[in-house]
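Give me structure tokens for this 640-residue protein.
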Amino acid sequence: MDESGFPSDDALLPDTAGSAASGEQNRGDAYRVLARKYRPETFEDLVGQEPMVQTLENAFETGRIAQAWMLTGVRGVGKTTTARILARGLNYELPGEVDKPTVKLEREGSHCRAIMEGRHVDVIEMDAASHTGINDIREIIDAARYRPATARYKVYIIDEVHMLSNAAFNGLLKTLEEPPEHVKFIFATTEIRKVPITVLSRCQRFDLRRIEQSKLIGLLRRISDAENIRISDEALLLIARAGEGSARDSLSLLDQAMARATGAVEADDLRQMLGLADRARVIELFAHLMSGRIEEALGELQAQYEVGADPAIVLTDLADFTHLVTRMKVAPKSADEASVTEAERVRGREFAEAISVRLLSRAWQILLKGVQEVQSASKPLAAADMVLVRLAYAADLPDPGKLLAQVRKGENPIAAGSASGSAGANPPGGGHQAMAVGMPQNASGGNPGESSGGPVMQGGARPQLAAIQGGVPAQRAEPEVAPRPQIPEEPVYALKNLHDCVALASEKRDIPMKVAIQRQMRLVKFEPGKIEIQPTEDAPADIAGEFGRKLTEWTGQRWFVVVSREHGRPTIHEEQEANQQQLLSDARSHPTVAALLAQFPGAKVVDVKVQVTEEDEAALADPMLTDPLLNEALGDDEDD
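Here you go.
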């Protein structure tokens, strides 16, 4: 490795370039993609994994070699390649010179070529995605008892180990806990959380890190020079960003860019290939949004879409630039990172001085949610337009803390917000200026109805949208109109007891809530707007809150349902059961029924149904006949 931490130029040469004869022999071979052609073969070639290499080096030198390793990380960081290199280091052998495990793999050993090509008899690679069952693990367990044929260790490399079944994991535990001294296990996975803890506890775990952009750019530059490909620095930066720390993804994009370009690979070629937007145009779009210029922002998005930019990627780039500006505001030194372009550095500092963290945080949340909406929308461009409109309007929303302080002082926050003006000095070279949103008076000390940001718009054309100066001028505060007194409406549903609630739930066809009211609530107190209940032992913990929410939703009135410590009445279901048992008891004690039961041994009363005649219904409907005092008086007259 050179001083910069990248593999040397010799290390980047493909493995077929060892001699002139081998070069001539492989000229007619099929083309190999860059990700395979420049696949690392030594620990020194592993870019960005220095902590793991240092740990393994110390372990090999002291003889503290583990029995199993777990390699985890995102796709393309080199898990399978690292496993092969580790197997090569375990079995490294130079006849007469080196005969022990080592990480110093300067020359090719006796077993190195076969191990790196995946054809060594003692280094067995298994794809757990296609070999998930216990039978596959049983073969490994049976074969592990025998010593290696030619190498020092028999190494089992299991890729995507999280795909194994539970039975397979359990079958592997005993051998993994106490393997033979000649057996080593190397596992690789992208889903470390799906691996049982019983397996993790038996392995040394290495989290392979994403490769930093600066190192990834250096690696891409060396490979492009080795391939005699002219590519601009900006194009390499775009590839490194799109690769997201994955060497394999970045090399695949470089391979695609080389096939696309007829000559030198430029940034415009990469933008068209990846559907990216120009970084400078993304910055301009950000400026339009923060200034409240919605029409210009929508036009810029349409222009980028017409040249091939994906709306979701445009919003992602906006979110990335918002994150960059926020970092520049809270950590100014982040602007000096190598991955930041000059345009991002200059304009980002201007925005960082002009926009508050509150507005940047709000923009980040809107964009983060907006990217998901655009990705799932049937019309991505229309969804992106709505996200931009939402972002432009939200940029001028006042701080809730300031509004609360104004209300406590007796000020009118609506009038104060519309009379806000500009404050602060212009940042150097930018021409942008912060707006003091939500202040009672403008910065120039004028009347509340005037703004120093520009002429006042009449007729309420649209609200002010500027987070930085240059947006739509402020709107004059409208005169306040006294609110009209509201006449309370009669409630649509007059609930008087739990039986009414059961009927309402049945009307709304909410069967679970109907059953819960009947069987899981003991009534303590029932008042208009407030119900006290004692839940049964099998009732859910949130039954009171859910009941109150449903009543409020159904009736349009506010209902509070609270849990009481007092003992309530029996539930509706318990009352119905008690009434039914009483009817059955009364029926059994009736002389006629008792005589029938005596005549038919084994017979029993199953159910009792009360039939109401027409005379009974008329009597129940006549209030005079149902009045107990009147019935008592009439009975006395008859007796007389």
